[in-house]
Amino acid sequence: MKRIIVDYSKLTNDILDLLVEKFPMGYGYRDIITFKNAKGETVRAVEVKTKETIYLVKISLKLE
Q1: What integer pLDDT is reported at residue 42 of this predicted model?
Q2: Cβ pair 7, 58 in contact under 8 A
Q3: Cβ neighbours, 10 Å, residue 18
Q4: Could you tell me where the beta strands, DSSP code E, fall in 1-64?
Q5: Quick one: 63 exposed, middle or buried, by C-beta within 10 A (0-12, 13-18, 19+)?
Q6: Whether the Cβ atoms of residue 6 and residue 59 lie closer than 8 Å to each other
Q7: What gap in Å lies between CA 15 and CA 8, rounded to an integer?
Q8: Does residue 5 sit in helix, strand or coil?
Q9: In the prediction, which pLDDT does 60 show?
Q10: 58 and 5 Cβ atoms separated by less than 8 Å
Q11: How far apart are CA 1 and CA 37, in angstroms?
């Protein structure tokens, strides 16, 4: 299963629908995954899964 980090502004409609389906009332602190990217920057994201891919949707001002 592959993991893809994607910014909220670059979401496709399909991934956006999955995000809304998984978090219809919004996400909480327990839903946030924090990790360091290849540049050493701290990234906060929420996880959305399909059969083949795990999407880590970066939390931006639009999502907060």
Answers
A1: 87
A2: yes
A3: 17
A4: 2-7, 32-36, 42-49, 53-58
A5: middle
A6: no
A7: 10
A8: strand
A9: 67
A10: yes
A11: 19
Pairwise CA distance, residues 30 & 23, whole Å: 12
Two structure tokens written together for 43: 């990234």
HSE, CB side, 13 Å, CA atoms: give it for residue 40.
0
Mean pLDDT by groups of 10 residues along the chain of 64 residues: 89 91 91 90 91 90 48
DSSP letter for 8, please: G
Q: How many residues does the chain have?
A: 64
CA 17 to chain centre: 12
- Rounded distance between C-alpha atoms, residue 11 and residue 8, angstroms: 5
